[in-house]
Amino acid sequence: MSSASLIKTPAERVRVNSVVFFTSTLLILLLTALLIAVPETAGRVLNEAQAWLSRSFGWYYMLVIGGYLLFVIVLAFSNFGKLKLGGKDDKPDFSYGAWAGMLFSSGIGISLLYFGASEPLDHYFNPPEGAPASLQAAREGLQLTFLHWGLHGWAIYALVGLAVAYFAYRHNQPLALRSALYPLVGERWVKGAAGHTVDIFGMFVTLLGLVTNLGIGSMQVSSGLEYLFGMQHSDTNLLIVILVMSTVATIAAVSGVENGIRRLSNLNIILFSGLLLFVLLNGPTLHLLNSFVQNIGDYLNGAVLKTFDLYVYEGDSDKSERWLGLWTVFYWAWWISWGPFVGMFIARISRGRTVRELVAGVLLIPLGFTLAWLSIFGNSALDLVMNQGAVELGRTALEQPAMSIYQLLEHYPFAKIVVGVAIFVGFVLFLTPADSGAVMMANLSCKGGHVDEDAPNWLRILWSAIITVVTIGLLLAGNFQAMQTMVVLAGLPFSVVLVLFMFGLYKAMKQDSQVEQEQAELAARGRRGFSERLSQLDLQPTQAIVQRFMDKRVSPALKEAAAQLQTLGFQVQTRVGQSRSAMGLRIDMEEGNPFVYEVSLDGYLAAPSEAPVEGESEVRQRFYRAEVYLHNGSQEYDLMGFTPEQITRDVLDQFESHRQLLGRVYS
């Protein structure tokens, strides 16, 4: 039996959280209307705000991003890394391969096509320090590109995913951003104003990221089609691309995590890897491999320095501040804006994993491929510009970044076919974040249901439609750049929420670790105390025997225990009579974890030495136990042979032990 059932009260049906849904929708539509109505004024004000933010808070972004990365790494290597995201007996919902594939695709989007060749070239021509278009600028350009796409950003996804999954699967909180505040403000505030505020703002930031993703994706695919077929750029072409991409993404979102998203993730890996290998094998292969190894060395060697590098001692401080705002600060804010929906998606697929598995998987599985892609495409582009006179490619990277990868592929065999494949890869790359984002937006808009139950299809379709309408409006109004600026501005307050997540996670993990240690000691003492009684029951009871025992003794004993606890003033939720194979009670505790006592009819295969002779039925090859489960899972002892009075006393003893634990740990 999964211990998840122990900590779940009967679920309400899934329904829209009207406060979160309507407030977040109204905010984004008002912002969009403003940007469309007065594009020039809004763009000027937002640009001034971004410049002020970069100038005033650049130091803060650098510190807090470094803090996120350090925090998740320390968690993974500490004793907290062994804590499971779920009950002790919970198993992962997805195989390791499927899980790794969805991790890979969740955060790797079409932006890698957009920036893969253009960003290193931009840093080459416009470095934050040193001479432009120099060998040093080329080397540092890849180092900075690795910084922007490396461990720091993935640490944000790991932090959000860890916080949401931990409180959802271990503390039976909703699979929502608000749940990470549970140990700081308590359950009442989490379900009230504080929780609504965090979810609303998280949805607002997420929508900004999704709109930016759709905008960049549509421009990337549209540019490819225009390049491939020689079409002129037009709003009509862009509109058709947006509608097609959004429709397919909506279909995938409706298919759900298990079907549409998982299959898209697998296709993603195959196509992306194929394009990467094509460029590697048809380009200067040895040079690219050497460059990749050196780029990794430069990145690791300068990771600490570049994390905190604000270019304070450069001669032209205004130029350095502008560069920092356009690149590093923008990237940190952009990762933060993607954090809510990617992190929630990671949480959604990570039940049953340990803290260490999640952190290692998120930081390492997508990272190797991301850095390989940036190194191979970036060095290929630099080689063409520096050594083969591809002047037009350098100009395109600065003026029309979406077109740069197609001009790069023009220098390879079967250029038209490969460009067509790259366009399709871009289309698929867009789909996975888009459909998982729509699912997570819909989930954040709801309340009720089981912790891992997704929102209804109509809500996923509605959010896909909202994202599409907002993107079309901004692109056609010529003010899409303003939405990208809003991403940077919105990232600042949400970065504070992530700091609160760290405090909440540390507090909860420390308490849970102490509770698990105390309960393990209690369980060991309990098993020793029961060993003599159990040794006298040298039986392998059948299911019918244990079922009668639960009906005749366990059920009345639990009712008696509930009655005694109610007379002491506790609000007791009972599960007696709802199921014959699992019955128990639960008391929510203000101090921390709820008290749960459940008895489950569990079956086990007989030991080989005690197996029945050949020809006996499989039913007789199993024996059954009335096994006790608490909040943290099975206690590994059997109630068979106990009287009702002894069972009642065991419930009360376990409750008293739980209260004493809470008093010691949470004081």
Automatic annotation (TrEMBL):
Cellular localisation: Cell membrane
Protein's name according to its UniProt entry: Choline BCCT transporter BetT
UniProt KW DNA-binding keyword: no
UniProt record similarity statement: Belongs to the BCCT transporter (TC 2.A.15) family.
GO cellular component: plasma membrane
PANTHER family: HIGH-AFFINITY CHOLINE TRANSPORT PROTEIN, HIGH-AFFINITY CHOLINE TRANSPORT PROTEIN-RELATED
Name of a matching Pfam family: BCCT
Chain segments annotated as transmembrane: 20-38, 58-77, 98-117, 149-169, 198-218, 238-257, 269-289, 324-346, 358-377, 417-440, 461-480, 486-506
Predominant localisation class: membrane
Record's bilayer topology term: Multi-pass membrane protein
A molecular function (GO) term: transmembrane transporter activity
Keyword annotations from UniProtKB, A to Z: Cell membrane, Membrane, Transmembrane, Transmembrane helix, Transport
InterPro entries: BCCT_transptr
Species this chain originates from: Pseudomonas donghuensis
